[in-house]
TrEMBL record:
The lineage of its organism: Eukaryota, Metazoa, Chordata, Craniata, Vertebrata. The keyword Nucleus does not apply. This is BET1 homolog. It comes from Oryzias sinensis. CDD domains: SNARE_Bet1 (cd15853). Keywords: Coiled coil, Endoplasmic reticulum, ER-Golgi transport, Golgi apparatus, Membrane, Phosphoprotein, Protein transport, Transmembrane, Transmembrane helix, Transport. One of its GO terms (biological process) is vesicle-mediated transport. It is found in: Endomembrane system; Endoplasmic reticulum membrane; Golgi apparatus, cis-Golgi network membrane. InterPro entries: BET1_SNARE (IPR039899), T_SNARE_dom (IPR000727). It is a single-pass type IV membrane protein; Single-pass membrane protein. GO terms for cellular component: endoplasmic reticulum membrane; Golgi apparatus. Its main location: membrane. The keyword DNA-binding does not apply. The chain crosses the membrane at residues 90-109. Belongs to the BET1 family.
Length: 112
């Protein structure tokens, strides 16, 4: 099967060389596109790795906050028990201790 312009003759060689120029240009563009695709692929992989790392950090922070919330809840429950009970002596000691710490910190800051 013969294509138009690709027969045996002078004009066929001119057209064939034109096609080879286009083929070389396509190969060059294909290599450029391949390089860009590989760069995008590596960037996407890096983004996925970073997202996994950030999600792990967020999960760790969530568990830390949950444990801290539980600790604070238990502490507040104990303080409520102290305030409801008739343990005024213990409450007085706790108040005096807080005042002592406050004055020590105040004195320490004043000396600086």
């Amino acid at each position: 099967m013969r294509r138009a312009g690709l027969g045996e003759g002078g004009s066929g060689n001119y057209v064939a060389s034109g096609y080879s120029v286009y083929e070389e240009e396509n190969d060059h563009l294909q290599e450029g596109l391949r390089a860009k695709v590989s760069a995008l692929k590596s960037l996407t992989i890096d983004i996925g790795t970073e997202v996994k790392y950030q999600n792990k950090m967020l999960e760790d922070m969530d568990s830390d906050f949950d444990s801290t919330g539980g600790l604070l809840g238990a502490t507040i429950g104990r303080v409520k028990q102290l305030s409801r009970g008739s343990q005024t002596k213990l409450l007085c000691y706790m108040l005096l201790f807080c005042l002592f710490v406050f004055f020590v910190l105040y004195w320490f800051i004043k000396l600086r």
